[in-house]
Amino acid sequence: MRKGQGSIEYLLILGVVIVLVLIIIGVIVGFQSSVTSVSKQQSDTYWAGADIGILPNHLVNSSGAYITVKNNRPFRVKIMEIKFIDETGSKGELPASFTLSPGASANVVVGQVSCISGSDYSYTVQVKYSEPSSGRIFTFTGETPLIGKCQ
């Protein structure tokens, strides 16, 4: 064995181990970020088909959230409350209730929801509604956030 050969072999093995650790960390971090991020298209698709849908033409600006709500249930519903919730808590609520037939939609404004123009928004949306014929009350919380860019 030559002089210094043991040290070179040790450094080479150490270098390979460090590279492998960095690759594993990169894969784990990349996997976690891809799992938690949702695209606008995924959000729009989810909300268009939700029990109480929100169509893709939603708009949020400094004065509120302008949304088109659609009844995807097979019965008439009375929308009683719509809440927009972000990481700091509830941001706005629908001030009045209205009734939608199956497949019908209505344009509504949810006040006290605001954002800075050009910034991204992500809200958990919660809808409280009832079935007028039976009086049953439901609370629907979306599994996917409503996301977009503030106007």
What is this entry, summarized?
The protein has 151 residues and is an alpha+beta fold. Helix content is 28%, strand content 40%. It is elongated and about 90 Å long.
Describe it.
- With 151 residues, this protein is of the alpha+beta class.
- The protein folds into two domains: 1-37; 40-149, Immunoglobulin-like, CATH 2.60.40.
- 28% of the residues lie in helices and 40% in strands.
- It contains two helices and ten strands.
- The protein has helices at residues 5-36, 40-49, and strands at residues 52-54, 59-61, 64-71, 77-86, 89-93, 98-100, 105-110, 120-131, 136-141, 146-149.
- Strands 4, 5, 6, 8, 9 and 10 form a six-stranded antiparallel β-sheet that branches. Strands 1, 2, 3 and 7 form a four-stranded antiparallel β-sheet that branches.
- Strand 8 (120-131) and strand 9 form a beta hairpin.
- The model has no long low-confidence stretch (mean pLDDT 86).
